Amino acid sequence: MSAMDAGQSQEGGAEADGEALGDLPGLSDGVLAAEVEELRGELERTRAASEERLADWKRARADYENLKRRSSAEVSERSAQATGALLLELLSVIDNFERAFETDRQDDPEAWAEGILLIRKDLGHFLDRLGVQPIAAEGHAFDPNYHEAVSQGPGPDNEVLAQVRKGYLLGARVLRPALVVVGQGGAASGSGDSASAIGDAHDNDNDTV
């Protein structure tokens, strides 16, 4: 076979292959157009679904923000109501104080003293309802978590000899520590030593007020 015949044979084969590819149904213009339309439709459906989800998310976020605002307002309202109820109780105690001091204690000192004791009792009940309790001090071991030493005196080592100012707990939290006189060891030579230490502690406490 000559070179010319071989070239013609190769050209004929290429033309045949091209005709065969052109005959494939997947490459026809109609099929390609249909596939493009299908893809375009799928893209539109995906875009529409995405926009719908975005709109749902925006609505959910708006609902959440509204709920948060309502919840915050409700919490503030409940807090104000609770505070108002407590203040009403405290105002009743203050009213009793004012009535007591409007009374001439010289006319009936015993009745006046009883009135003051009743007011003190009312204040104790008020603190109880708030969950406020006094801290145990005198006669107990000194505890820096609950006590603050303002003075020392002769007596059992590390024992609270006297309380200068009451301390209070709100639940398990210390509102303020008790100011106390703490024993430094050794026996007291007399009641005067302890009284002197307590008096000095009271003076120091008054100086800080």
Give structural notes.
The chain has 4 helices and 6 strands. The chain has 209 residues and is α+β, with helices and mostly antiparallel strands. The chain has a domain at 133-208: Nucleotide Exchange Factor Grpe, Chain A, domain 2 (Roll). Helix 2 packs antiparallel against helix 3. The longest helix has 74 residues, at 29-102. The protein is elongated and about 115 Å long. 11% of the residues are buried. Mean pLDDT is 79; it is low at 6-10 and 16-22.
CATH topology of one domain: Nucleotide Exchange Factor Grpe, Chain A, domain 2
Mean pLDDT across every amino acid position = 79
- Biggest sheet, in brief? 3 strands, antiparallel
Which CATH architecture of one domain would you pick?
A: Roll
Which percent range fits the helix content? 55-70%
Tally the helices: what do you get? 4
Describe the strand arrangement of the main beta sheet, using strand numbers: 1-4-5
Rounded to an integer in angstroms, the radius of gyration calculated over CA atoms is 46 Å
Distance between the termini: 125 Å
Inertia-based shape: elongated
Q: Work out the strand percent.
A: 5-15%
Question: What's the CATH H-level superfamily name of one domain?
Answer: Head domain of nucleotide exchange factor GrpE
